[in-house]
Fold this sequence. Notes:
Elements: H1 2-5, H2 15-26, H3 30-46, H4 50-59, H5 62-68, H6 73-103, H7 107-122, H8 126-149
Amino acid sequence: MDLLVSHPRRYYGSAKQEVARLLEVLGVDRADVVGILGVDVAAGAWQWSPLKASCVAHCRSPLGFMMNERRDGLAGAFGMGLRYAAWCLGCCWLVMAVLFVAGAMSFAWALAISAYVLAERVLPLGRAFDRAVGAALATWGAWLLVAALR
């Protein structure tokens, strides 16, 4: 967590130590860590995509979705549920992947990522918040990825 809140130059040499810690804690080899960190970079890039923005716009308002997309009967309700789930899955599928990868061994990461997803859905923070989180995820993932490849 120190890497996220402290000045990056102070920890320039410890990126390798962080990768070594990931190797030890997760019990995986270096090639797996490269894949894991690639998920971080991809999730950060996804936060900037217009498709993600469209999905979040639909997912943030379940009442609006139900009023505009209402269908009668059991089959209609099931179809509405599937469409709404697709919008919500579209907006955070890569963040869920990061939650699975990072949160598998760390309650703190699971809590932080879950809090982000909740804030994104509930608070009127807008695209700037999503992009800031995306930039942080991509930067952190790329930084550790470079260290893992050295």
